[in-house]
Design a protein that fits this description.
By secondary structure, the protein is an alpha/beta fold. The chain folds into two domains: 130 residues, Immunoglobulin-like; 226 residues, Zn-dependent exopeptidases (Aminopeptidase), CATH 3.40.630. The protein contains nine helices and 16 strands. It is globular. The structure holds zinc ion (ZN). The site of zinc ion (ZN) has 6 residues, from loops. Zinc ion binds next to loops.
């Protein structure tokens, strides 16, 4: 298994220091509310896989940028307005993986940082923006791999490492519960000759949200299932819900997405309202039938979880299938869902989630949903192809 190759790893301490510096900087910016302050390009990283590359540009502020693709030589460039980049970050990063030759970053003129991606063989690309921290994500696709005879499923246990996820009243951590459920799920498919399972993490480690879909895309996965436990300030909130990526249509769904994205509800609402920014990405999803496929998958998982758990438990609350803008589903090239398996904030459900047998039953129910999806929609997935659409 070839793992991701992060261009630049930061140890925890430098990340914490950088975080504090960023907070101080943002505080200063907001204190003086100076419109003249420039957006700073902090960091450029990439993850390289056999036919897929993800480039992540970190910035201090939400940028305004223009972009274009030029021929001879083939290259993509991004001009970030009212921005600056430190001298030591103005450099050429060699990728050389057959899709992308290099990434170059420099101060183009006094007010503009230009980032150039020198292309090799690219079949398609997409651009996504995220906040907290602010980043522009560029996905570069190479030539499509031969389709595997086996269906590939990427399971994504949420959180991990320094991010515990939600914590129950008796200190049960979401990250531990969901990892165990994902490992149990993999075991259930172990002897299935038609299915291959990959996990975004197999141990208690932290993985950025944008790397999780990058792993699924790099595996040419047929399905992506992110596994989480829910939380609410209302201790009596309980039950199961399954999400797909789309604009949220209710406040509760936005609260869940804000928590899972680690952003404020205010920012979440703002993003949900700024339809133009996300319109093209979500339009792509609809066009490629991925939204319909995700909805079918979500319905089957939700239904099987509720009926499966109802066999042995009473009062399983069915919140149904919902939609919201989850970062972890952004840019996924396959039908993808996020399951909130129970409320870890509810004392009774926390107690159940702490039990091995309940986690096993959750895994079995999710597996039943996936298996039914595979049976009914064996050719359900499509992979987007085509030339250079840019999002946003
Ligand atoms: Zn979570």
């Amino acid at each position: 298994m070839k793992g991701p190759i992060p261009y630049q790893r930061r140890d925890l301490m430098s990340t914490v220091v950088a975080g504090i510096m960023l907070c101080l900087m943002l505080f200063c910016l907001s204190s003086f509310s100076s419109a003249a302050e420039k957006t700073e390009v902090n960091d450029i990283r990439f993850w390289s896989y056999p036919d897929y590359t993800r480039v992540v540009i970190s910035l201090t502020e939400i940028p305004q940028y223009s972009r274009s693709r030029l021929a001879n030589p083939d290259r993509l460039y991004f001009d970030i307005k009212n921005s600056r980049i430190n001298k030591e970050r103005q450099k050429t990063i060699t990728v050389g993986n057959g899709m992308l030759k290099t990434v170059r970053a420099g101060q183009f003129n006094e007010n503009t940082v230009r980032i150039v991606l020198d292309l090799d063989k690219m079949s398609d690309y997409k651009v996504i923006s995220m906040e907290d921290p602010v980043r522009i994500i560029i996905d570069i696709y190479g030539q499509k791999q031969a389709v595997s005879a086996k269906k590939r499923i990427v399971l994504d246990p949420g959180h991990g490492g320094h991010d515990p996820g939600a914590i129950g009243p008796n200190n049960l951590n979401e990250k531990d519960v969901v990892l165990d459920i994902a490992l149990k799920l993999r075991k259930l498919f172990e002897n299935d000759p038609n299915i291959e399972i990959f996990l975004t993490r197999e141990t208690d480690i932290f993985i950025p949200l944008e790397q999780r879909t990058a792993i699924a895309n790099s595996r040419n996965a047929d399905l992506f299932v992110s596994i989480h436990a829910n939380a609410s300030p209302r201790r009596d909130a309980k039950g199961i819900e399954t999400y797909l990526l789309n604009w949220a249509n209710d406040e509760q769904a936005m609260k869940v997405a804000a928590r899972e994205n680690a952003i404020s509800l205010k920012k979440m609402k703002k993003m949900n309202d700024s339809r133009d920014i996300l319109a093209i990405m979500l339009g792509d999803l609809r066009r490629d039938n991925k939204r319909d496929e995700s909805l079918k998958l979500a319905n089957l998982i939700q239904k099987n979880m509720v009926t499966g758990l109802n066999k042995n438990y009473t009062h399983i609350v069915d919140h149904g299938v919902k939609q919201a803008l989850f970062y972890v589903l952004f840019g996924a090239q396959m039908p993808s869902v996020l399951v909130e398996v129970s409320f870890i904030s509810n004392p009774l459900e926390e107690k159940m989630l702490a039990r091995d047998v309940y986690r096993g039953e959750i895994a079995q129910s999710i597996a039943a949903g996936i298996a039914k999806y595979m049976l009914v929609f064996p050719e359900g997935q499509t992979i987007a192809q085509g030339g250079g659409r840019i999002v946003p």
